Amino acid sequence: MTNRGFEKHYYLMLLPGMVWLILFSLVPMLGIVMAFQDFNPGLGIFKSEWIGLENFKYMFLLSDSKTIMFNTIYIAVLKIIGNLLVPLIFALMLNELRVIVMKRWIQTIVYLPHFLSWVILSGILLDVFAFKGPVNGMLTFFGVEPILFLARADLFPYIVVGSDVWKEFGFNTIIYLAALTSINPALYEAAAIDGATRLQRLRFVTVPGITTTIVLLAVLSLGNVLNAGFDQIFNMYNPLVYSTGDIIDTWVYRAGLQNLQFSLATAMGLLKSVVSFVLIVISYYLASRFANYRIF
Amino acid sequence: MVTEKTFGAKAMDILLVIILLAIGLLCVMPIWYTFALSLSDKAAAAAGIVRLWPIGFNLNAYDQIMSDEKFIRSFGISLQRVLLGATLNFIVVVLTAYPLSKTTRAFRPRNIFMWVLVFTMFFNGGLVPWYMAMKSYGLMNTVWGLVFAGGLQVFHIILVVNFFRNLPKELEEAALVDGAGPWYTLVRLYVPLAVPVLATITLFGIVYHWNEFFHGLVLMSSTDKYPLQTYIQQLVVTIDTTTMTEDEYKKLSELSNQTLNAAKIFIAMIPVLIVYPFLQRFFIHGITLGSVKE
Question: pTM score, two decimals?
Answer without folding.
Answer: 0.90
